[in-house]
Amino acid sequence: MLWHDPRRCLRSAFFAAAAHEFASRGYAGARVDRIAQRARVNKAMLYYHFGSKRQLYRALLRTTSLHVAARLREVGESSDRPEQMMDRVIATFAEIARERAFFPAVMLREIAEGGAHLDRETLAALGAVPMAFSAIVARGVAAGAFRPVPPIVAYFITMAPLMVYMAAAPIRRELAKSRLLPVVPPDLDAFIGHLQQTMRRALENEPSLGITT
Amino acid sequence: MLWHDPRRCLRSAFFAAAAHEFASRGYAGARVDRIAQRARVNKAMLYYHFGSKRQLYRALLRTTSLHVAARLREVGESSDRPEQMMDRVIATFAEIARERAFFPAVMLREIAEGGAHLDRETLAALGAVPMAFSAIVARGVAAGAFRPVPPIVAYFITMAPLMVYMAAAPIRRELAKSRLLPVVPPDLDAFIGHLQQTMRRALENEPSLGITT
DNA sequence: GTCTATACTTCGATAGAC
DNA sequence: GTCTATCGAAGTATAGAC
Fold it and tell me: Which of A104, B97, B126, B164 can pair with A167 through a Cys bridge, CB separation 3.0 to 4.6 Å?
């Protein structure tokens, strides 16, 4: 990842700090001072390298989205059967969110934001994620392994629960702490298992044969 | 809805304006000036009636959450079979979001926010929504109509796609405008149909019988 | 209860030395 | 390339007249 280049290293430090700040406070709530402080770099450096808060935000979103899209394409290039591929797509989403804990919250926030602060290039990077996902589903449908569900619909039904369940971890903790939840919610791995099963059933093309329970 | 009471009417005007502002800009991005302007009331009045931006936000969240939870309980009290009840739960969510367009975005943002700005009372109101939903699923499981899926898991798998798909409408428009989407995404009604079908399959307890295609 | 004017604070951004 | 000091804008909140 080119960590030998000091310029790259500085960008990474800024990205990590910015990701944490934007995820937990949102674009408007994020403070440039806090990002610089967390990155252990002077604030003026941030402006020197990125120009503005907005451009830093865009760079973060672009980098992250392109990374996610690339990982999904990797899964799509494997020789797995479509059903297994969907399992791996879900696992990959979760894996990415484990590596980059900020990902779900930033994603949800940007959706709610409706694309304000974004330029065309960043928008394109964002769109690469549903595109990569849709390609996988479309091939499964074409091969007859999946029901003819619109790929973009499958994308939202798969990705949204994952993003929301992961982003909701803090508020679940709050609810649990205040004794406002009747039962302990399953951990992420269990949730992923349920989601995989749900999508297998949702996309299953031969209801009378071989539903895995 | 007590529209005859002028005090109630004023609160409603504030709520409507605040909802729009919080949904499109987030808590930190929301501007008290804009809320007052949109409500066609002086800003000082807002502070007179609600005390602060934060308390206005909490009041909005409480009112909305309690309304949603009440609507879900209504569905739960009907004499429908569990499968039909789930269809109606999904339809009800969508209906509420049609009446109150701000609902999905505010919900997603608050999840990402992790419960900051919230007091115990508002947190409890928020928790009432998954509680009401879970009660419905739990009864379906107890009656043998549903597979033994943890109700809270079913909640996230059902609610998240709806919230995200609705909240993502603006960014889908942006993507479409920039020609960054290969196909036109289904409208909300079609999406709801797919989600209902997905949840029927996900909760179906007898895979060999009566799957509706 | 309602409005005007303003106090006080915080934030994004930059100028300018090194 | 890096840091300090600071500016100007914009924000929440309130004091005080009516």
Answer: A104
> Is residue B174 located within the same domain as residue B125?
yes
pLDDT band at B132, cuts 50/70/90?
very high
**pLDDT tens digit sequence for A79-93:** 999 999 999 999 999
Kindly state whether residues A47 and A81 are assigned to the same domain. Answer: no
Nearest nucleotide to A56 (CA to C1') is C12
Q: Say yes or no: A37 and A91 in one domain.
A: no
Does the CB of A44 fall within 7 Å of any strand C atom?
yes
Which residues on chain B are in Cβ contact (under 8 Å) with A212? none
* CATH code of B62's domain: 1.10.357.10
Same domain, B91 and B17: no
The burial class, CB within 10 Å (0-12 / 13-18 / 19+), for B137 is buried
pLDDT surpasses 80 at A196: yes
- Tell me which nucleotides of strand D come within 7 A of a protein CB: 1-5, 10-16
Contacts of B92 (CB under 8 A, 6+ apart): B71, B72, B75
When divided into structural domains, chain B yields a total of 2
* Residue from B105, B70, B53, B87 nearest B192 by CA: B87
Residue A119 lies in a domain: yes
The shortest CB-CB distance from B131 to any of A153, A161, A182 is to A182
Query: Residue A167 falls within a domain, yes or no?
Result: yes
Q: Is A191 near strand C, with its CB below 7 A from some atom of it?
A: no
> Which candidate from A27, A164, A185 shows the least CB-CB separation from B29?
A27
- Same domain as B176, residue B146: yes
User: Which chain B residue's Cα is nearest to A106?
Assistant: B112
Which nucleotide comes closest to A50 if you measure CA to C1'?
C13
Range of the domain at B141: 53-203
What are the tens digits of pLDDT across the range A19-61? 999 999 999 999 999 999 999 999 999 999 999 999 999 999 9
CA A134 to CA A80: how far, in whole Å?
16
Q: Which of B157, B162, B165, B199 to mutate to test the interface with A (most CBs of A within 10 A)?
A: B157
Per-residue pLDDT tens digits for B89-119: 999 999 999 999 999 999 999 999 999 999 9
- Is residue B1 a part of any domain in this protein? yes
D1 C1' to B155 CA distance, Å: 52
Angle subtended at Cα B179 by Cα B176 and Cα B185, rounded to the nearest 5 degrees: 35
pLDDT tens-digit map of B56-85? 999 999 999 999 999 999 999 999 999 999
